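Two quick folds needed for the group meeting slides. Do the first one here.
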Amino acid sequence: MKKIMLSLIVFLLAFVTACSQESAKPSSSAPATAEKAETKPEGAKPAEKKLPRVAFVYLGVAGDGGWTYEHDQGRLMLEKELGIKATIVENVPEGADAARVFEELAQKNDIVFGTSFGYMDAMVSVAQKYPKVTFLHATGYKTAPNLGTYMGREYQSAYLVGMAAGKMTKNNHLGYVGAFPIPEVIYTINAFTLGAQSVNPNIDVSVVWSNTWFDPATERQAAVSLLDKGVDVLAAYQDSPAGIQAAAERKVWGIGNDSDMGKYAPDFYISNPKWNWGPYYVQVVKEIMEGTWKPGSAYFGSMKEGITTTAPFGKNVPQEVKELVEKKRADIMSGAFDVFQGPIVDQEGKKRFDEGKKMSDEDILNMNWFVQGIKGTVPK
C-alpha cells in the first residue's frame, strides 16, 4: 500500500511540473525575446557622423599678430562651429622638418592644413604616401587627388589700401617691403600700386625684399632703407609690425599686413589687408565630411565671400579718404569693378592687358612682373 501511495505521489508531482513548464513557453504570437521585440522609436535621430581628426601646421606662432594669428582665429571658429578639437604644430620651418611633421600628422589625422607657401613640395610628397588623408595647402599651386589649395583675393583689399595711401602721401613716394618674390606678394604689390595710381597718377612705389615672413630685425632694416629714401607712406607684407613701427618713429604713415596692426603705430597707421580664414575652414571641413569636396580643388575666395577684407582705418585717416575707399569697396563687392582689368602696363612700358580685358586667375596666380610706376625688380 505504501508503494502504491508513493508511486501516485511521484506521478502527480511529474504531472504538475510538466504543466508548469508548458505554461512558461512563449506563445507563437508573442516575441521570443525582449531583444527581438525592440523597435526603433518613431522619429529617432540617425547616428551622428564621426568627427574628422584635423591638424594645422603653422610657420610661426599663433601670437605673431599677423598671418599665423589669423589662421589660428580660423581654427578656433572651426572648432566652435563643428565641435572639432584640432591639433596645431607651431614654428615649423619650410624644408625637411616640414615633411617630417606632415608625415607624423598624416598617421593620426584625417585632414591636415599647411599654412605656408614653402610647405608645398613637402605636402605633395606626403600626400602621395597617405592617399586616405586630405591635405589642404594655403597659397600653393600644386594639387593632387587628396591635396587641394586655398587662397583669397587679397589683391582686392590691397587695392583699397593703396587708394588710401595715394590720398595720404604728400610727396608721391611710397615704399613697400616685400616678403618673398612669389606671385601672391607680387600681385598684392601691383594691386596696391594700381589703387594708389587710381587716385594719384603721379605716385611711384619703391620695393625692397626682406626674404622673410617673420624676422622683425631684418624687416625693420628693410623698412629703414626705404625711409632713408624719403618715402612718406610705407607698406610691408611681413607678419611682424616692425615696418610700420619704424615708419611711425619717422612720423611716416604705415600700412601693415594680414591682421589689424593699428595698435602698433596708432598715430601713423592707415590700414592694411586683413584675412578671415574661419568661413573657409568651416566650409571645406563640412564638404569633406559630407563627401562633396572635389579632389584636388583650388579655392580662390573673394572679398565678397569674406575671406579677405581691410583692417579698420587708423584714427587719423580723414573721413573723405574713408568714404572714397568704401565707395570702391562696394563696386568690388558687387562685381562692378575688377582690380586687374586693362589697360595694364608693366614697369618696362609693355602693355600686358588691353583696355577692358580682365586677367584670368591663371594670369594672376602666375604673375612675375611689376606694373608701371614700381621702382624695384622681381628676382629671377
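Then this one, please, same format:
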Amino acid sequence: MKTTSHMVEKEIDDRAVLVSLVTQKQKRNEAIAEYSLQELVKLAETAGVQVLETMTQNKETKDSKWFIGKGKVDELKAMLEELGGNTAIFDQELSGAQVRNLEAALDVKIIDRTQLILDIFAQRAKTREGIIQVELAQLSYLLPRLSGQGKNLSRLGGGIGTRGPGESKLETDRRHIRGRIDELKAQLEEVVRHRTLHRERRKKTGVFQVALVGYTNAGKSTLLKQLTQADVYIENQLFATLDPTSRTMELPSGKEIVLTDTVGFIQNLPHDLVASFRATLEEANEADLILHVVDSSTDMRNEQMRVVGEVLQELGAHQKEQLTIFNKIDACSQEEREMLTAEGEFLKISAFDQEDLERLRIAIQEKLMGESKEFRIPADKGDVISLMYRIGEVLETDVDGEDMVFKVRVNKDDYVKVAYQLVAYDQQAKQGQQEDSEGEIY
C-alpha cells in the first residue's frame, strides 16, 4: 500500500460547513467548546479547506444514529445545498455507523476532527519515520470504520480525509490492512532502534538534551531558529512542522547542548496519533530538560497548558525537569504579562528579543549545570582534581598552601555519582587546614 496518495492534486476544492455538538457535560465550560470550534476552523484552513459556515447544536447527549439531532441534519443539508458545500466536518469523533448515516442523508463527504488532524499530518510528514507513523495512525483509525467510509473511500480525487494509505486497498481487504499495520509497526520498531542507538551515543559523549514541547503554534520552531540559527520551516499555522528537528546550541559558558523541536500538541489529539508518534515524542522522555513553550497571547493558554501536561503524563515525561517559557509576550499588554504564572520556574520572553534569549540561555544553563559549589582538594590528588573538570564547569581555581580550591558549577547527575568521594576529600583537606591553624595558635 502506498503512502503517496496525499500528493495527488485535488480535482475539486473542499468547501465545508463545520459542525460542533455541545452536550450538557460540555456546556459547563462553553468557552472551551467555543475555542474547540475556532480551532477546528484553523485546522480546516490548514488542510486547505474553504470554510463556508459553522453550525453548533446544544443537546443533552449525542444521537447514536446521526450524532447531531435529525432536525439539525436537515438544517445542515439545506445549508450545504444553499452554500454549494461538498464536505461536512465535525468537531468530535464519529463512529463508522454515524458516518454512513450522515453520508446517506447529506450526500457529501463526512470528516471528523481526528481524520482532519491525520490528514494535516499526512501533508506535513516528510521523513521516512514521519510517513510511517502517519500511515500507521490512519490505518489504525480507519480499520474499525471501514463499513462507514463509503463515499470517503470511493473518491479518488484527493482532498481532506482521503490522503495517505490508499483508498481502494482499504475498501477491498481488511486482512491486507492488518498485514500492512504489522509491517509498519515492524518498520517503526527498526526506526526506534536506530533512534535509541543515536540517543545512547549522545549520552556517552555527555551532551545534554533539551526538548521543546508545547501546544501547536506556540512558537517552538521560531524559538529553535532564534537560539540555534537553524534552517527550519516556520509558518503561522497549526502543525507547521511535524518531524522532530535537533540542532546544537551553545550556552553562555561555551558548553554545547542539543535542542530538539517536537511535534505540537492539540486538544483531543487522536490516541492513534499519540501511539504512532511515541517514537518521536520520546525525545521529550529522554531529554535532560523540557522547555514547555506557551503562547502567552491567547486567552486559552491555561487550557493549552493543561492539554500539554496531560500528553506529557501519558508519555511518562511529566516528572522530568521542566522550565515553562511564556512566549510572544510582545503581543501582550502589561496587565496581561503580569497575569502570566505557572507551577515551578518560568520565564516570560519574546523569541525576537535578544536580551530575552540570553536570559533563556542562562536559565537553561543553570537548570542543566546546577548551582556552583566550592571544593578544597589536596594538590597531590591529581585523579580527584581531574574529577572537577568532569562533573561540570570549573569557574575558578586557587592555591591555598598544599590544597587546590575549586569553584565549580556542577552537573547534577554526574555530581551524584562522585559526591561521596569529593565530599570526603573536601572534609579531609578542611580538617588538615583547621589542625594547621590550631597548631599556629599554640
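Slide caption for protein two: The chain has 17 helices and 13 strands.
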